[in-house]
Fold:
Amino acid sequence: MRLRLPAERPTEPPTGYKIAYPVLSQDGTRAGFTGVSLGGALPYAVLDDASCVYGLRHRPPARRCDCGFHCVHDRAAAEALLCTAEHRAAVLLEVSVLGAYIRFERGFRYARQRVRTVTAGPCGCGAGAVALADAGWGRPGLRALAPACAGCLRGRPSVSLAGFARLAGQGLRAVAAVGATGARPGPAAELTTDAGLGVPELVAEAALLQARLDWFQEQLARLGDPGAGGTGQG
Structure:
């Protein structure tokens, strides 16, 4: 006879951490996430229920299957996954573990989750991210995004961190990780506007708008310069 651990009945949902890729719908109206491993075939929203990736008709997390959402207990353990080459463009998620779950030594496998916070790492060039831009791949109807700085946005489809949070809904909070300089926000960063945006979010929005303006000005300059391929008057 196998002994089972006693059932847990927490007063508050457990907190977990995981990594994922942010995604944006083709029409730019919806935002969500897709997993970095087997679960990548099933994109999910901020508040969502797990499905069996194998298409079996049981309710996750089934004990004889590895279906369900997965997360780890320790934030540092999730951040360590971002060091691998294939996951450098992923983001860190802080989640609430909802519904039935199975506890393991390092984390949970569970039925339902709410993503509370998404933390975007640095741009590929090393600068702090101000937006999430087209990563160059995706799923049918979904464009994968990656952290990007204002200088690397160019003409790529992108959305600011605050904009991504608004599209994702459910009170999601999107922030940029501490930059390479190690500088942390000062007291002014705690101020918020009536729209709920703090100083870092407003700075990121301004940088994103400036990057787009610079790109449009460059394109206009090229169109107006006959030597750059324009069709000047004869």
User: Anything to note?
Assistant: The mean pLDDT is 83. Residues 190 and 198 are 6 Å apart (CA to CA). The longest helix spans residues 199-223. Strands lie at 15-25, 31-34, 47-49, 69-72, 91-103, 107-120, 131-139, 142-148, 158-160, 173-176.
